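Bench notes, afternoon.
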Amino acid sequence: MLSYQHGYHAGGPADIHKHAALARMLDHMARARRSCTYVETHAGRGLYDLASPEARKTGEAARGIIPALKNPADLPEPYLRALRLTRAVHGPDAYPGSPLIAQLLLRPSDPLHLMELHPQEHAALKKNVHGPGIHVARQDGLVGAMRLLPPRKGDGFLFVDPSYEVKTDYAAAAAFVLEIYRKWQDLRLLLWYPILDAGYHELLVTRLMNAGLPGYDCDQFYFKVETSPRLRGSGLIGINLPDQLKLSHQQSCLIPD
């Protein structure tokens, strides 16, 4: 299915949860001596307009990043830096998706591999996130990541952020993480999943939690107010994360009530 477009949800509480964690991790990778290859399986368009009809229709940003920025000290510095850099170039209503956050926080020498299957989102991604060392492909991101990883040199970081349009996406995400870990055991990975009324995420979490993956870490945040129909919270799973980047250190209080 290719109906999902993130513009309706950009800047919402789920975005704060995952992008704040991602920004902390990428900032850490950029400070390391070794180069970092960043791979993203479901990249979206990379840049969003919070004043667009899509964003206004759901109002998720109005319950997420817009009130959060009234207390910027509560936001992790790398995430706040990416937000400010984006708005300095694209205007006060701009919001960076994860590909743009990666471009802004990693070093120019760190290659980015961004995959997006939706034709309109892919076209926008090529326009919004480009430059030397940035590779944008229209393909199945899970298949593409298996071909790209492990990197030929340096470290690698994989961000897995499917749309979960169908309930089988949860099982597919779990199977993919286990398969790619068998291929590359030094994998550093961040996986996002939505928490819905139906509880489909429980299969994903249980399967990965019981797999004995190194440095397994999980953080779930439940929204106190309804963000979008059926979405009750946001979940993150990390693999091979250093102690200072444990998801349990995430400041869930940064998401407005």
